[in-house]
Write a structure and sequence with these properties.
By secondary structure, the protein is an alpha/beta fold. It has 4 helices and 8 strands. A hairpin with a 5-residue loop joins strand 7 (157-160) and strand 8. The radius of gyration is 19 Å and the shape is globular.
């Protein structure tokens, strides 16, 4: 592979048409393991403004799933069967997985993918105004990895959730300016 990445031609050659069955597939969720669900729920709802779509307990396996997304609370079905189908039909949700007892393990840290060995990088949240969002995050004591005016890429930020996962804060209308050399 080239040291500067794939050429446009190589990208075109690598990207194939999916089987027709895939036309109705969608990106539904990204799962993040969390140590303390109370802190994580406060962060994702109170700071990022997401809505808890559904909580699912698995007592025999000692874990709970919390599905969050950007949906109106009034749209969430009350009936559990309808709610479950609805939750799993939403696009780009976050699934927070809490293994019971992890909040009491002082030595437990989840790997965020940005330390060695690298792997998973971040999730991204689109906001109308990165600077306004970051002002609110600062007032709420959020940890910043990168502020909007630091580094080579301006107009975007990276913050961390309570478990250290990185979250890119971006404005869709500003992303094109980042492509300029």
């Amino acid at each position: 592979m080239a040291s500067r990445g794939l050429s446009d031609e190589a990208v075109s050659a690598a990207c194939k048409e999916g089987d027709p069955i895939t036309k109705d597939y969608m990106m539904q969720q990204t799962m993040l393991r969390v140590k303390d669900p109370e802190r994580s729920l406060q962060f994702y709802t109170g700071i990022l403004g997401m809505t808890l779509l559904q909580k699912i307990d698995f007592p025999s396996m000692r874990f709970t799933l919390y599905f969050l997304g950007y949906e109106e609370k009034s749209d969430i079905p009350a009936d559990i069967k309808e709610r479950t189908a609805w939750t799993f039909s939403r696009r780009a949700t976050i699934e927070l997985t809490h293994n019971w007892g992890s909040e009491s393990d002082e030595n437990l840290l989840y790997h965020n993918g940005n330390n060695e060995p690298r792997g998973f990088g971040h999730i991204g949240i689109a906001v109308p105004d990165v600077y306004a969002a970051c002002d609110v995050f600062k007032k709420q004591g959020v940890t910043f990895v990168k502020e909007p005016d630091s580094g080579k890429m301006k107009d975007l930020a990276f913050i961390q959730d309570p478990d250290g996962y990185w979250i890119e804060i971006l404005s869709p209308n500003k992303m094109f300016s980042l492509l300029a050399p």
